[in-house]
Each structure stands twice: as C-alpha cells, then as structure tokens.
Amino acid sequence: MKLLTCLPPVIPNNAKVLILGTFPGCESLLQENYYAHGTNSFWKLLFTVFDKPISKNYEERVKLLHDNNIALWDIIASCSREGSSDKKITNPTPNNIPSLLESNPSIKTIIITSGDVQKHLFQYYPNLKAFSHIKVISSSSGTIGISFEEKLEDWRRIKNFL
C-alpha cells in the first residue's frame, strides 16, 4: 500500500486557534485542498459561522481562515490508507503539533474535529491534554443523524476563542 503524505498547514501570522483534522481524504489529496470533497460540510460551516457567502474558490476559502486567525492542519503527517475513511488508516506518523504551537504562540486553542483526531493527538502528545482545546462535531458526511444545523450550532463556539 502506498504511503500518503498530508497537506502543508495553513498558518496565518496571528492565528488564535488551530483546527486539527485527522488526515486529508482522497479528493483533498488529489486537489491539494483541505476538505475538497463536496459532501464534507467544513467550508459551509465556516462560511456560515462568519456570515459570509460560501465560496468554492480555494484561495477565498484560505483567505477566510487568514481573515479570522484560524490555522488548519492534520494530526497525521503520513500513513497508508485505502479510500478516505479514518478507520482505514494504518502506519500513521504524527505531525509535530507541539513544535507548531511553540513556533506560533498566538495559537491558544486547538479545535478537535473528531474522535479520531482526539485519540491520535493525545496518544502522541499526552501533555497537550493541558492545552486549551474543544471538540466539535465532525464536518464529515459520515456523521449520520446529525443535521447541518446541529453541527453549525456546535461550530459557532469557535468564535469564542478568536
């Protein structure tokens, strides 16, 4: 199985939060854009949280992150995986989250986007349990039975940390 490598982080100069995913899906790796698959509501959630019209243009999406002091990265640097499911990840190697936080001291809170992110983050870096963090409902279409409105209400909490 082929070794896959994550996308580079998006780090605004004065980032206040780090939204942390698990690992990019196949479509995201192919397009080299975070959350590229149309069924994932990540971008719709963020644009709605900030009362902006949703853009499909990736540069405008990244600008939304910069304008709101939001950094974006994944906990896993490389892994093997068939398909896009986090459950199929094997041989994961973590990104150096402590180093990123150390070199970006304006980041005060980690936004954890799924149970898998939380599991990997604290498995690799147990000391980060003491770092300010909140867990939000996953933006993945795999969150069966949770409406967009429920996700949005949960994701609005991000603004409390900006």
Observed structural traits:
single chain; 162 residues; alpha/beta; Uracil-DNA Glycosylase, subunit E; four-stranded parallel sheet; three-stranded antiparallel sheet; globular
List the helices and strands and how they pair.
Layout: E1 3-5, E2 17-21, H1 26-31, H2 42-49, H3 58-67, E3 70-74, E4 76-80, E5 90-94, H4 97-103, E6 109-112, H5 115-124, E7 133-135, H6 148-155
Number of helices: 6
The CATH first-level class comes to Alpha Beta
Q: What would you give as the CATH superfamily?
A: Uracil-DNA glycosylase-like domain
| Number of beta strands | 7
> What is the rounded distance between the termini?
40 Å
Largest sheet: 4 strands, parallel
The computed structural class is: alpha/beta
Beta-strand residue percentage: 15-25%
Second rung of CATH, namely the architecture: 3-Layer(aba) Sandwich
Shape: globular
What is the fold named in CATH at topology level? Answer: Uracil-DNA Glycosylase, subunit E
**What order do the strands of the largest sheet run in, or round the barrel if closed?**
3-2-6-7
Q: How many domain modules?
A: 1
Structural Rg: 15 Å
Series of H and E elements:
EEHHHEEEHEHEH
